[in-house]
Structures are given as structure tokens and as C-alpha cells.
Amino acid sequence: MITRREALFGAAIGAAAVTALPAFSATVTKADIQGLPREKIQLVAPPFVHPHDQIAKGGPKILEFTMTIEEKPVVIDADGTKLNAMTYDGSIPGPLMVVHQDDYVELTLINPDTNSLAHNIDFHAATGALGGGELTLVNPGEQVTLRFKATRSGTFVYHCAPGGPMIPWHVVSGMNGAIMVLPRDGLRNDKGEPVKYDKIFYIGESDFYIPRDEKGNFKSYESAGDGYDDIVKVMRGLIPTHVVFNGSAGSLTGENAMKAKVGETVLIVHSQANRDTRPHLIGGHGDYVWEQGKFANPPAKDLETWFIRGGSAGSALYTFLQPGVYAYVNHNLIEAVELGATAHFMVEGEWDEDLMTQVEAPKPIATN
Amino acid sequence: MSPFILKVVSVAMAVATIPIGFSAINRNGHRQSHPAATTVTLAAGSITYPMPGEFLRNGRPQANPRLSRQFNKPIEIMTHQVSASDYSDCVAAGGCQPAQETRAIPPNAPVTGVSYLDANAYALWYSKATGDYWRLPSDEEWAFAASERFAGEFEGVEIDADNPARRWLTSYKAEVDLNRKPDPLPRSRGSFGVNSLGLADFSGNVWEWTSTCYVRTTLAADGTGVATSVDNCGVHVLEGLHRAYMSNFVGDGKSGGCAVGAPPDNLGFRLIRDHRGWANRFLGYLGIA
Known about the structure:
The structure holds 2 protein chains of 2 kinds. Chain A is built from 5 helices and 21 strands. In chain A, the strands form 5 sheets. A 6-stranded mixed beta sheet of chain A has the order 13-12-15-19-17-18, with no helix packed on it. In chain A, strands 1, 2, 3, 5 and 7 form a 5-stranded mixed beta sheet that branches. Chain A has a single domain, classed as Cupredoxins -  blue copper proteins (Immunoglobulin-like, Sandwich). By secondary structure, chain A is mainly beta. Chain B is an alpha+beta fold. Chain B has helices spanning 3-17, 84-92, 116-130, 139-146, 164-177, 278-285; strands spanning 39-42, 45-50, 54-57, 60-62, 66-71, 75-78, 133-135, 207-219, 226-239, 244-247, 267-268, 272-274. In chain B, the strands form 3 sheets. In chain B, strands 3, 4, 8, 9, 10 and 11 form a 6-stranded mixed beta sheet that branches. In chain B, strands 1-6-12-7 form a 4-stranded antiparallel beta sheet.
């Protein structure tokens, strides 16, 4: 009799043995690549983004990243509902990586032996080998290093894809994030003019599928594997129990609300690795929106709501014009309010009476 | 004196003139089929507290005016919030809808997942079951009973006539500064301790319904009184760690909250026993008082 944990682990080892076969054969360019300058990047947890240049300085580089996979329980709502999460670097979503087009991304992926499952990474920005998934499967106690060339600019999802039914389960357990490949000369608007941002925030939206007991209360499990059967049943219903930003309801509100000032230009990168969504900034707009996320296409202008396809990341550039507390939501408002997909911006500055004014405060209805 | 203030005071006077035959324990125990709730009778006294609702002057939001309120007669109020098991008696008797509470909570926990309508249904049933007149406290009665546990309005909210966003931002910050983490699961009654008046569990993780309607008041431009006021009794005031306003049919504090700010963890209530004279009772039985 083997335990579920052993069964999952065993399956993973089998998969690893197969994927170890293709040999890395970069012969011609290997020396050239080795001559490139290298830079180590320290990743930071979302919604923040590691320091980076918007316009590349010099030629292509090799950018070195390290991500450690953490399996851990996380609380995903105010009721204390627990998800047996799987994370890149401890956060849901994983950190946003920023590089420039034609840079090389060199990721070392560590799966500590304190974890119980095998994991890998599939970069939508990468070409070949299932986005790198075939070359990165690591068991607990292993690490792997992958290098790929960022040939296309834009925002792209990355996620875990360890084969078969493990794929959606790992993704909806938190194993997804995004990489932003900037054009070397920075972002441009619909007319081809350069645009830049003063601040960048990364919002990764997750759909979670937590099983309920007979009374309708959310269940919790000792380990990820223990909940697997129940969770897959809920997943197959395709109706999430939670739709949240950055790993839990309320993760970007209150003391964690994002902050900006009137006149500041903010780039909001929004990813959803599994399911369609439709971000909306209540009381604001998207000045320039790369809805599909790819910077080679001109951005759409003046959007009210934008569509992020499941399995993609997009971005919206907006200059705040009015102070106040803004809600940034998935404008399926049921998902925003009942299921958790709401974030807040606190924007300081002077009120613009021209843009809006309350001509007359509420008062009893006038009678003749 | 403003009409609105007058209205409040006239209510106070009405309470003050009701003949009372109070005692800390139920004198009518022989008539009741239900065990009496433990109550505390508060001696007459006064409070100064920020009135609930929204206030405008010259079309601009104003801080909630602070009102001094004299309670000339004692108030008898339940020591604890109504418990889940007390409430289930009402449900079993057909007087109440089941509470919207499915979680595993301690048997002696306060009832949660109840709306204003549920609370009133319970008060009606409990009055019949005990032969006494029980009702929700008004907001000012609640504030008086909660004593040092009464929070009221947030401190530090700025009103800037030229920048309405100052109020939104500072009020949001005030809520953040409460630094309150969600504390969702109701605990056994008494878990949040007693206040200086011997009343338990005020401002724990269960907010309490009051009988006070949401009201928007326009203060006179010269500041001497009320120009107009509009009640919305489809929304009632809840008190707890901070004031909240919710639609009467909402039983879940989290889903009934606003777009921004920390919502109440749970909604419950406690009741006041009114001591009315025979005339009032008679009219009450006829349904006209």
C-alpha cells in the first residue's frame, strides 16, 4: 500500500527520467552566449517589481534569476479558508521577472526536499520544450537551470506544468506568474511615441477551487495530496470558490493598498494563468492598454475595461488625474465582491473640480 | 434647537415618562416558557457621542455632530448577545428564520448570520414567550451600555471643502490604522470580557443591530440646527468595533459591506426589556403602541 504522497512522488520521478533524455545542444552560439555580460536579479514579491531600466542600456545580457519553490498552506480569505498552496518563491503569483527583448533569461529553479511534489516551469515567452517545462522538472531535493532567449516583447505567463492532471492542479494551487520582456528602447504608444511609467504594479489573478463539507463550509487538508481528489471534482465544475488577486482576498487592500499620486503614470501588469478576466479601474481608465500583452502591437487607447485571456498577461498604462481611493476589480462584479477579486489604489493629490464636482449635495426631492 | 435634535430628545422624554416596574430579573417568570435572559439594569445617566448617519452643511460633508444625551430612567439590557441556542428556540417555534450560519461554532456562542429583520422577529417572539416587551436598543442606548467599549466614528478623518478625496483617503487610513485582522469565528459568550457596567462582549467580533435608521441630515448653513433630514429605514445602524450601516435583510457582514473598508466579521444582537405601564401594554396588545 503506498500513500498518496508516494504515489504522486513516484509518478513525478517517472516523468523526470523521461525528460532527462534530450541533451542540450547549443554548439554554434554557445561561445557567443558565454561572452555576454551577466547580471543577477533579486526578485521581489508582487505587487512590487524588481528594479529595472525601461530602456535597455547596452546590448543583450544574460539575466540570472533564482526561484525556490515553496509548498505551504496559505489563508485565502477573511474566513481563514486554507489552500495547500504551491508557489514560486513563496508568493502567489510568483514574482514578475523583467528583461529586455534579446536578453537571455537564466533561471535556477530549486525544489527543496521539504516539498513533497515534483515541479517545473513553462514560460510562454520561451520557444521550444513545452516552454521549458520538459527541461525543468525537478523533484524535491533537486535544482535545475534553464536558459532561454527572450525573442518577443510583451508580458507573458509562466506556470508549472508537470504533466497530465498535475498541470491544472498546480496552476490553480498558485504556481503561476509572469515575465515582462520590454522592447530594448522601451514602451511606445499607439503613435509610436515613447511612453514610460513612474510606478509598476504586478497583479496576478487566481481562481481557487476549495471543496466544501456537507454543511457548505470549506474543508482543509493536511497536505496538498490529501485534498487532490476533492479539489479535482470542484475544478471540473469550472466554478471557482475564490477569484482573488495576489493569493488571497484582501491582499491588495487596507494596509496593502497600492499607492500613487495624481500625475503619476502607473503600469499595471495583470496575469491570469487559467481563466479569462476583465480588469477595470473604478473611476479611472486605461490610457494605453496592451490587452493581449504584446508590445509589438500598438496599445489600445482609453479603455474602460480590458480583457485578459486565461493563460496570458496584459498591461495597462494610466496617469492618475484625481485623488481618492480607487478600486481595481475584475469587472465580473460577483467575482470582485463575492469571490475576492478587488484591489485598492490610494491616490494622493489635489482634486480637479473641472473633471468632476458635486453640483448639489443630496437633499430631499424638491416639491413645487 | 434643531428639529432633528428635538426629535431625538422627544424620544428620550417619551422613554423617560414611561412608567416602569423594573427589576434585574424577570418578575414574570411564571408566565414564560423560555428561560429568562440575564440582564443588567443600568442606572440613569448621560453620554456624549457622535450621532450616526451622514451630515452635510453647504453641500459639504461634516463630521458627525456630538450629542449629549440624558437617560432619565434605568435601562435593562441583556448581559450577553442573544445566543445561537436561544435563537434556535425561536426557529423551532416558527417565530424566526434560521440564521445564515453554517460554521462549527461553540454551542454557547452568540447567534450570527442574522439580519435586522431576523433580530426583530426574535424580539417579537421572545416578547410573546416571556410576556415582556423586548426590543433592539437604539444607537444611543447601545453607546450608553457599551460605555468605554463604544467606538463610534473614526478619529482623524479630514474634511477639506476643496478636496473631497481627503475625506475618503483619511477615512480609509483610519480604518487601516485600526490594524484589525479578520476574526471571523464566533466564540463562546463572555469570551470578549465585560465592560465597566458588567455587560459582556461589546465590540468583539460580533457587531450588533440597533433600531436606529440610517439618516442623512443637512445642517443649517449658520450651524444652528437642521435644515432637512431624510431617513432611510431600509438601512439600520450596527455598532461594534466601528459603526456600520447595513440593509435590513443582510445577515452576513462581509457581503453587506461597502466597496472599501473593513467589514464587520459577524452580525448579531442583544435586546432591551422595556418596562411599560399597563396602558402601554394594553395598547401594545392591540397593536397600536
